[in-house]
Design brief:
single chain, 111 residues, alpha+beta, Arc Repressor Mutant, subunit A, three-stranded antiparallel β-sheet, 5 helices, 45% helix, globular, Bacteriophage lambda Replication protein O N-terminal domain-containing protein
Length: 111
Amino acid sequence: MYMKKMASKKYNWGEENPMGVSKRGLLKAFLGRQDLCKKLSGDEIRLFLLLVVFAEERKSEGKLSWENVKKYLGDDFRKDQLKRAASTLEEMGLARMDYLSREADIVFQLL
């Protein structure tokens, strides 16, 4: 999968880094970090969880169609919401996303 290389910080999970482990381990670590969950909006949390579900197990990256975004986050989920949530997830060092248009797949990497 192609994803342009950009310098991104990674979230500091402390001693236990769940990236590279199973999705279940990642979700458990994410939900156990109340400090992190308090800093994210509902849209950001829902988008991150959707990315985890659609990520390839070993690579921590994947593709997500706009149809699936609408299907799982709601028909009223707009592109500006996606941009804001994606920006915050990257700033927090959780995920990086590339998307060109509504027609193209969203390519992402969990950081």
